[in-house]
Design a protein that fits this description.
This protein is of the alpha+beta class. It has 4 helices and 5 strands; from the N terminus they run αβββααβαβ.
Amino acid sequence: MSNFLAVATVTEALRHFIERNLQPEVGFAVSVRAQKPPTEPFPDATITVFCYQVSPDPAQRSRDAPTRASDGTLLTRPRSVLDLHYLISFYGDETLLQPQRMLGMVVRGLHEWPVLSDADIAFAASQTFLVGTDLPAAVDRVRFTPTHLDIDDSYKLWTMLSQTPFALSLTYQASVVAIDGRNVPDPGRPVLERTVRALPNGRPAADAGGQP
């Protein structure tokens, strides 16, 4: 289970993952920020992590259906299962190929360890602006998969970021992130009696009283 802070917790955990995976080879100071690409490029080496799109996970979007009976009684706890789409952009001294060097480290790190670790999630959960997140207790682990944007998709994305100049970037999809509803269904009625019988060569049948 995870509450409404799940999306923000994943973003902060990803930011921290990238920050710690730059060491020790990077050799220069790098700022890793969770924000959209800026309208004015950063003067110093910087990586931005931007969640630019959120979509329902197609494989699990109806996993909790139906949530209510015909009379409105809650049957299961509602859950939204999402995929997060990230744009990771790189800024730095082009004469020293800093953006390309940082990109290589991020690709290596996310390929070697594509699942958010407990340590990164715990770091994110310790931030004051994420107090109360319960993502560390979630059953589903968030996995990052590289995605490809063709020329048209890339053009549309950067055009959407009005007055933002293009920067060397990667796109990744984070799956799955679940957000649970606040309402919990009442527990089912207890089973008063269990009757199990084995009938060889018999045909399964049940009458109104539940006897075979």
